[in-house]
Amino acid sequence: VGRVDLVENRFVGMKSRGVYETPGGTLLYHARRAVESLTLDREVIHQRDQLAPKYAELVYYGFWYAPEREALQAYFDHVAQAVTGVARLKLYKGNVYVVGRKAPKSLYQKDLVSFDELGGYDQKDAEGFIRIQALRLRVRAMAERPQEGKAL
């Protein structure tokens, strides 16, 4: 667990081979992601996944004191405020499995995700949402239909 063998791009442009062994870091990574899956919403996770490679690149290249690294740090510190909880991991034949997770600030609401009438989610709400989400696609399809004498 935690051994990586890769070819990486160095800052100066050459390729180099790196072999890293971080078993503790790998366990922390999986545990953290498990708790984040409960405590961060979808869009924050997407944004984190977009910004994390840039942050890692800045640190890897030695730009610790760069203003853009500090700005990203402020973002990650803010996001981290909600991430608190416990994850149980199982290690088996070199793999890490999340077998449990809980968080006091969990966004997962069991009663909300059930599609019964008591769950607080009305499937009828989806109809308007789907129509609005599809609007741009309908407009595009109409625009691509051949029309004679189409004027502005």
Instruction: Output the structural class.
Output: alpha+beta
β-strand percent reads 15-25%
Q: If you consult CATH, what is the topology of the largest domain? A: Argininosuccinate synthetase, chain A, domain 2
Principal-axes shape call: extended
Query: How confident overall, as mean pLDDT?
Result: 91
Order of helices and strands: EEHHHEEHH
Indicate the CATH class of the largest domain: Alpha Beta
Helix content: 40-55%
Distance between the termini: 63 Å
| Biggest sheet character | 2 strands, antiparallel
Strand count: 4
Number of domains: 2
Order of the strands making up the biggest sheet: 1-2
| CATH-assigned homologous superfamily of the largest domain | Argininosuccinate synthetase, chain A, domain 2
**Rg, Cα atoms, Å:** 23 Å
Question: How does this model look, in words?
Answer:
- The chain has 5 helices and 4 strands, in the order E-E-H-H-H-E-E-H-H.
- With 152 residues, the protein is of the alpha+beta class.
- The chain folds into 2 domains: 3-104, Alpha-Beta Complex (Argininosuccinate synthetase, chain A, domain 2); 109-146, no CATH class.
- A two-stranded antiparallel ribbon has the order 1-2.
- Strand 3 (86-92) and strand 4 form a beta hairpin.
- The relative contact order is 0.11.
- It is an enzyme of class 6 (ligase).
- InterPro entries: Arginosuc_syn_C, Arginosuc_synth, AS_cat/multimer_dom_body.
- Homotetramer.
